[in-house]
Amino acid sequence: MKKKLIELLEKSVNACLKKGTLKEMDIPFIEVELPREGAHGDWASNIAMVLAKGQREAPRKIAERIIDNINDSDEILDKIEVAGPGFINFFIKTSAWAALLEEVDELGDRYGESNIGKGSKVQVEFVSANPTGPLHIGHARGAVIGDVIAGILQASGFSVSREYYINDAGNQMNMLGESVYYRYLELMGEKVSFPETCYQGEYIAELARQIHDSFGDKFRSDKEGAIPFMTQYAAGSILEGIKEDLETLGVVFDRYFSENELYKNDDVAKILQRLQKEGFIYEEGGTLWFKTTDFGDEKDRVVVRENGEPTYFAGDIAYHLNKYARGFDRVINVWGADHHGYIPRMQACIQALGRKKEDLGVVLVQLVNLLRGGVPVPMSTRAGKFVTIREVTDEVGRDAARYNFLMRRSNSHLDFDLEIAKAQSSENPVYYVQYAHARICSIMRNAVEQGYRIPAYGDIRLDLLTATEEHELIKIIDTFPEIVEGSAQALEPHRIPYYINDLASVFHSFYNKHKVVSDNAELTTARLFLIKAAGIVIRNALKLLGVSAPERM
RNA sequence: GGGCGAUUAGCUCAGAUGGAUAGAGCGUUGGCCUCCGAAGCCAAAGGCCCUGGGUUCGAGUCCCAGAUCGCCCA
Fold it and tell me: Residues with Cβ < 8 Å from A265, sequence gap 6 or more?
């Protein structure tokens, strides 16, 4: 509906320009929005006020002229008026609203999809935690946000790939192998002083036990041979665990990309040579520097250390080159907010590779404060004491976990209270929307029992839906596709939970005011059609979030 | 010391590209099941949108300065 109104306004403004009743100027983006006050119409536009400055004329006069030139050929408008300082208020005919419901029913589970992506290839890279230990609660938020961003982009017509980058080439992997080795020695009764820099978690000892069970004391006196083996064993095993945990959360990747591959193929060395030849890399004091300052970074960055060892950043350069080489038009990285300092250098990097700044999108995810009944749950990664994804999912369930992670803007801190997340009560927002869906299903079951058929689009007296609450419900159902589009463009998944919450609220109000199933058969059919559409939208929206829409609860 | 983000109701937070009387959930107070699911609804109370300047018809939103908190970098 919004798009139709914008189109009407555009045509009218163009007509005015042609007639000369408006002066030639750049026409700004025309905005139409839902006014808070019902008296201000169903939709309103401020276009006359925006034009006023350039036209050097009173907004109300401009608005009058725009209205005079509107050609409502589809007859969707009941009334248009100029109000306040120069708003144009639209009042929509009931018949036009009802037509929107038919669209929802016709599209079914595809309602809300769009093609703003036009099939362009996007990669969303997220989680990407080193396989040195199980994922904890902080990773879970990034996992869900990345997954849902990918899903929203898919629904918006992008061709999306979900990828997990495994930083398995650095020193911390050796440290992992060493950690397991020391625990292994301990198993055989050797007294070792376990270094503080090693990984402390209980899972390390468990891995050592597994190795001891399978291989006995084979590695006891062969530290040289043991560490590479144990590194690989541990990383493989931990990664398997990570995959399982992500799956319980409903997160599945298209690809796990190993940093090691980049070194095996010499990609890192090759790209560094290329950039050096192109003048982006210079040597100073035995180390190689990337001139990221050329692209606005605050200082240049080291890519190869004095000892010849490439930095993480070097690997990241090669990795991003690799991404674009695979044909992705745009690459989106979901990072912990503590990585925000990396953004300028990565943007510099992709520009040196010949891409535009916009081809890299970064979504920062802030910390999660884990609480239990309002009290912070103590955590320390160093001591290996933390709450894992698995523990959280097992305790509160996938739906509640995902919904709670998605409810806040990703760039703001999140308090995650285990007690609230698992409470089956009104405190827990996920139940509010699921309840609305279950209620709709329940009403429809009830209607069927009383001999009604669930109506499909076509011959339904939708003109009977004239109550304010029905009006409001149709209106909010109608905005769903715009919400998804906006969410995709801004990479802001939290807009969806907010939307569903609003929709559920409008539905509940409608429910409490009006009886769906009554002895008026035509009205009952029309209302069944309305709540059916509402159910479709709740289901589609929850599906975007990876949250179930139960029929009973 | 430099940079990034935050600051909106008692609490947790929404308010994209500036618009009409600033919203939601929780909490508080008071109502609503003889009736399709009360995990719901309705009503009320609750605000210096951190402070001070600026931009303009119009600022929670944009600009500048400062305060407080969090993080990154040396």
Answer: none
CA–CA dist A132, A386 (Å, integer): 14
Q: Summarize pLDDT for A120-164 with one digit per residue, the tens.
A: 999 999 998 888 888 888 888 999 999 999 999 999 999 999 999
In terms of CATH, what superfamily is A2-92? Arginyl tRNA synthetase N-terminal domain (3.30.1360.70)
Q: Which nucleotide is nearest to A512 (CA to C1')?
A: B41
Question: Whole-angstrom Cα distance, residue A438 to residue A428?
Answer: 16
Domain ranges of chain A: 2-92, 98-116+426-544, 121-164+252-365, 171-248
Say yes or no: Cβ of A313 under 7 A from any atom of strand B: no
Q: Is strand B less than 7 A from the beta carbon of A340?
A: yes
How buried is A514 (Cβ within 10 angstroms: 0-12 exposed, 13-18 middle, 19+ buried)? Answer: middle
- How do strand A281-284 and strand A287-290 relate by DSSP bridges? antiparallel
CA pair distance A38, A295, nearest whole angstrom: 50
**What is the tens place of the pLDDT at every residue in A344-391?**
888 888 888 888 888 898 898 888 888 887 777 776 655 556 778 888
The complex's ipTM? Answer: 0.91
CA angle A293, A296, A298 (to 5 degrees): 60
Residue range A98-116+426-544, CATH number:
1.10.730.10
pTM (predicted TM-score): 0.90
Strand B within 7 A of A2 CB: no
CATH number of A121-164+252-365: 3.40.50.620
